[in-house]
Amino acid sequence: MTQQHPLKGGELTSPLPKCLAKTRSGGICQLKGNPKNGRCHFHGGASTGPRTAEGRSRIAAAQYKHGRRSKAFVAAQRARNARGKAIKRELKSIETQLVFDGLLPKRWERAFRLE
Questions:
Q1: Which of 58, 59, 32, 56 is nearest to 43 (CA)?
Q2: Which of 68, 73, 76, 99 has the fewest beta carbons under 10 Å from its own?
Q3: φ and ψ of 18, to 5 deg
């Protein structure tokens, strides 16, 4: 089932038929058609999506990007942030106590600043 090239008179290399849908300009579409319905992707031959559960899971896996906004990742990030804030609060209370006891000067960070 090979077609003749409309302008050159030779055989087409593709086994797919032409779309042959009527275009807006009134001509005939010359794109290759979909084997299922014969139309190109502009005139109704594009995929309508997966039908089976396997196909849907395959598409979902292909659409998965990185997971940095998933519920589990966000919950773990919030837990890490809360743990870091608790450590920072504890260090601040230790620093305040050391300054109060006279073991550290009030502006002790300036003495240890690296410039």
A1: 32
A2: 68
A3: -70, 155
